[in-house]
Amino acid sequence: MKLNNQIIYQIYPKSFKDTNGDGIGDLPGIISQLDTLSHLGIDYLWLSPIMRSPQRDNGYDIADYYHIDPMFGSDEDYFRLIQEANKRGIKIMMDLVLNHVSTEHEWFKRACEGDPYYQDFFIWRKRPNELKSLFGGSAWEYVPQLDMYYFHNFDVHQADLNYANEHVRQEIYRMINYWIKQGVEGFRLDVIDLIGKDVDTGELSCTPKFYEYLQELHENTFQNHYLTVGECWEATPQQAMKICNGKGLTQVFHFNHLTLTHHGSKWNQKKLELHKLASILETWQNEYQGIEAIVMNNHDLPRLLSLWLDDQKYRKESAMLLAMLFGMLRGNLYIYQGEEYGMTSAHFTRIDQYRDIETINYYHEQLKQGVCESDILEVLAKISRDNGRVPMQFMNTLGHGFTSTTPWISFIQGGEDIYPDQTDCQVIYQMYQKIIQYRKDFEQELEHPIHFHVQDDILSFTRGTYHGVFNFSDHVYPLPEVGEVIFHNYLDTAKYLRAYEAYIYQK
Ligand code: TEU
Ligand code: CA
Fold it and tell me: What is the average pLDDT value for the chain, to the nearest integer?
């Protein structure tokens, strides 16, 4: 099976398409769009978790690994999705949340009832240490009837599994093999770098134990027969090489380029520095020998065109600029729903519009610390995870073709004219189609090393006979001699490089 140079399209099922009028996207909705998706030229469809879950963290809190949450449809709907996708040459990639389960999972409930077999599925201590949850507060929660604390790296309703326990590992292998048998051909492994954590020393990511468990997981489940991608936020090329050494995963998501604007934490953003972006892209492309996962958006991130560029006046140009830049990078290209027609961040202005647990926790923490509400809302509008989680918009009607009722989360504020048939959106979509086709036809062109150059607001690159020039600002700059134009994000040409204008050309 070919695992490199693939196109993977990520769906956030809750916000993709609702067919039964409950305001929540569902599996029949995804099936209804398969023809359109196959038109784009994708190879894999990755769905964020759809297994049974109380939805505290939108499905990243799984209560039953073996069944589809009724909110999304039935198990049969999922089997049908696999079949219908396969018919169109698309493989299904499943999101595996292996680091933790919902506190409503049978294992955790039994543990709390005092069953020692299941107690050892989790991480308990008599006394909590200073470790903090990524979603705010302590990482330890007290269970009075056991007089002990359990560890949760994320929300208090997401209890971390104890991988030191062999029974846990066996249960996980059994579950993955079940889904392989059902026809799943790809896996995205949520925060997989954390499974070997040592809560006593505080070493959580990429520990020696992690590499050991990963190899065992590989041998007992997917081996090298399926496309596997592990989420490892801060991975270096060296760590990625170790994870993808033939006995682990196909590839990792690293977000080094997307955390560039973090100032201390993601809540504090600074201006994008182009030379740093250039250096990260170049290092990964040239030094990393594995298959890079090329990502600009996902369900945890604000839309990149809103964060880095201009999502209003120059929305079309910005969306296309990013597609052209990331589209020329070697690896597997991930596209997040709506990216292909230039969806923007949500532009919410009130706290009651948000649904994300991390966002809401942060809001209350900040209020408690005396930060004024308008300042918090400004930060959230920029960076909240809900920015990428608003519903898809298929047409310019009341429910945007997403739903016939009120959606579970509001649409983009002021984004009424963002839908596939709108002229600008069509142009963006066609650019994605062209780039995807180009990557298939000229695969070997991406094998050449890439060299970036930055001057003022202009990022440029050379890759073999290909050159790219990208204006990251609304200032006008002199235009280099562009040779034979391959991709361009304006419909006409000018003597200057205009606002957010970008060219890929050959000399
Ligand atoms: O994300 C892991 C993760 O580290 C992010 O949630 C990150 O902490 C946050 O966006 C930065 O502030 C994965 C999933 O992608 C995410 O949706 C889940 O909430 C999380 O794991 C827990 O399963
Ligand atoms: Ca529905």
Answer: 97
Q: What is the distance between the alpha carbons of residues 244 and 4, in angstroms, rounded to a whole number?
A: 13
Does residue 386's CB lie within 6 angstroms of at least one atom of ligand 1?
no
CA atoms within 13 A of residue 483's CA, in its CB half-sphere: 13
Chain centroid offset of residue 298 CA: 3
Ligand 1 atom with the shortest distance to the CA of 298: 15
- How far the first Cα of the chain sits from its last, in Å, is 35
pTM of the shown model: 0.98
Which residue in 158, 110, 121 sits closest to 137, CA to CA?
158
Cβ atoms of 85 and 45 within 8 Å: the answer is yes
Phi, psi torsion values for 249, nearest 5 degrees: -110, 170
**CA of 357, closest atom in ligand 1:** 19
pLDDT bucket at 234, cuts 50 / 70 / 90? confident
The phi, psi pair for 8, rounded to 5°, reads -115, 130
Helix residue spans in 369-451 (DSSP H): 373-383, 423-441
| Contact between 224 and 246 (Cβ < 8 Å) | yes
Are 468 and 461 in contact, with CB atoms under 8 Å apart? yes
pLDDT at 505: 98
Helices 208-220, 166-181: inter-axial angle, 10-degree rounding? 40
Per-residue pLDDT reduced to its tens digit, 152-203: 999 999 999 999 999 999 999 999 999 999 999 999 999 999 999 999 999 9
Q: How far is the CA of 72 from the centre of ligand 2 (A)?
A: 6
pLDDT at 233: 86
Query: Can you tell me which residue has the tokens 């290209």?
Result: 333
Question: What is the Cα–Cα distance from 293 to 284, expressed in whole angstroms?
Answer: 10
User: Are the C-beta atoms of residues 155 and 53 closer than 8 Å to each other?
Assistant: no
Q: To which residue do tokens 């880095």 refer?
A: 308
The reply to whether ligand 1 has any atom less than 6 angstroms from the CB of 190 is yes
